[in-house]
Known about the structure:
Elements: H1 22-46, E1 60-65, E2 78-79, E3 84-89, E4 91-94, E5 98-101, E6 105-117, E7 123-131, E8 134-145, E9 149-161, E10 166-173, E11 178-180, E12 195-203
Amino acid sequence: MANELNRIEPPALPLATEEYDRPYQDQSNNVLRLFFNRLIxxxxxxxxTNDGGKFLYMPRGLFYSTTDQTxxxxxxxxxxxxxxTYIQSGISIVDDTKITVSxxxxxxxxxxxxxxxxxxxxxxxxxxxxxxxxxxxxxxEQQTIVGNANQPVYWNFSIDLTAGQYIxxxxxxxxxxxxxxxxxxxxxxxxxPSAVVAVSFVSNx
Length: 205
């Protein structure tokens, strides 16, 4: 695997002698010197100002949906589904909608919703953040979607979470002709998901 550090094993020190013995002391010092030289080399690689970060593993996830998502009623919130996983480590999807973390921290979410509107009139749509079953205060957005058009909606936010907590993205529409639309691959473009979210760990709490 690329960007792997050489693992350092504990030093295999020789068994001590009953009395002071110079060769034994020299051998022990050499073993410890080798161990600490390797340890310092690894630390230098990790803390390199050029590319030390390439050795670090952080919680991360990328999830998306390949299904059309519709509203059954106007002005009613529905959780956005992300039923497919592209990358996952320390972050998982539960019940297709709950983006769940396994470690305390601040996380960044980048969300794209691909809307499709089949009515000629403009329509209001709303999206908002729900944290473990509770809407985040002032965690919403409102968009005006033009008629007969496909229009992406973007979200980028950071939020604090503890292990086991989850985020759901909700959406609502004032017109049932608006949906979250997925498009199958067709020349010249690849498939277009109805929703995609990339999640990355920012910092400890």
